Amino acid sequence: MSETLYHYMRKAFSREAFGLSGDLAIFTPFSILSPPEETHGFILGRDDRGREVRVNPSKLPNMHGVIVGSTGSGKSTLARHILLQAQKMGIKEWVIDPHSEKSYTSIMDTRLELTVEKIYFMEHPGWSPEELASELSYYLEKIYAFPGYRSILREILAKCFEEKSLYPFERVKNEDPNLKRIYDDLRKLYSEDGFKIRELAEKNLHITFPTLVSRELHATASQILLLLLEGYMRSLGSRNRVDLIVVLEEAHLLKDYFLRLFKEIRKFGLSILAVTQLPREFDPRIFQLAGYVVALSGPESYIADIASLFSLGREEFDHIAFGTRGNALLFRSGDPRPRRIVLEIDPFVL
Questions:
Q1: What are the residue ranges spanned by the domains of the chain?
Q2: CA–CA separation, 142 vs 219, rounded Å?
Q3: pLDDT in tens, 83-99
Q4: What is the mean pLDDT of the chain?
Q5: Are 243 and 75 in contact (CB under 8 A)?
Q6: pLDDT surpassing 60 at residue 165
Q7: Domain named AAA+ ATPase: which ranges (predicted)?
Q8: What is the pLDDT of residue 335?
Q9: DSSP class of 109
Q10: 294: which of 8, 120, 154, 262 is 20 to 30 A away, CA to CA?
């Protein structure tokens, strides 16, 4: 990338950049001092000063994080590296993986193939029937792109959760082809003998899907599981430690949910790590609210997306624009300066 192209991209994107609120800290006297590094948490690698760099979600304002990178940049490898460290720290973990990557199976205790194995989502600790129906209907309307359906879905689902059965939905499914489509997908996931959220939350789970599952069914299954898990963790009470971390591949499919979840300032021991190669698909506020963001290397169009979200200096720009695989930028909430790091991945996950 030439000097001219660099300045062109900086000019094109600087006016629309969504910087962190702490960016103004660079103008304070403290900006000449190197910020102290975290001594606990997940080891990512080393910075340009040779210091070990860690992320400790428990110490950040928000426990949730994002990994962004282009195809082949090592997003899933980094996610597996973090999961392996979480295991050693006694943290439970889930991976929701639409691609069914075998590399995740090697580090997880249990594989759950949804639609083949089913869940019982009529038990929903932490949610009243009306609350869960309202939340789920909101996301189903967006997942299936059926505008105007939230109200009727909320009414139907509230009855289902109150009666602990899909029968109220079954009674009306043939009145509208769109309702039938949603019902048929719920039916593929649900069983009265299926796994309950209390059971699943105690396992290290690699959650996968058959090859021919639709995008909507994958998103619906992921959304139901995350809502159930969120309610369950909330029912256990507030706590400032990570008890369970969830890696969600293709996270842009649930972008609306993440915006709501990342706004939650209370901590219930749940940390979501969203993995995506499409940062432009996310609301920019998600990156502002995240406790940490790791941006891996990629092509010019991808770097332009990152530059529109964060204030990048020339050194940061070059680090992921020209660097080899393994170069990354770490943005942490409360630290206005991106950290240029070289990842040090546990060989076991390679």
A1: 3-113+204-349, 129-189
A2: 10
A3: 999 999 999 999 999 88
A4: 89
A5: no
A6: yes
A7: 61-296
A8: 82
A9: S
A10: 8
